[in-house]
Amino acid sequence: MNNIDIVAQLSNMKDVDYRNTLAIASIIEILIEKEIIKRNDIAIKARQLDSMSIEEVQLLRISNRGQN
After folding, report:
1. How far apart are CA 66 and CA 57, in angstroms?
2. Is the model's pTM score more than 0.85?
3. Fewer CB within 10 A of the end CB, N or C, for the chain?
4. Alpha-carbon dihedral sign for residues 56, 59, 42, 20
5. How far apart are the C-alpha atoms of 50 and 56, rounded to whole Å?
6. Helix 39-50 × helix 3-33 angle, to 10°
């Protein structure tokens, strides 16, 4: 793979990352506007997930699926 391909792929990844971030931010804002969640709830959950390892997050997802 040459340098031009790498630069093009990085540019594409940045665009995808931006679009994903925008979509997530939009969903959060809609949920807050509709009073489904509170901004503080998002902050608390973000801190909780940030302090966890990837394995802990995966286990949390698996255990939450079993509760539904």
Report:
1. 15
2. no
3. C
4. positive
5. 11
6. 140
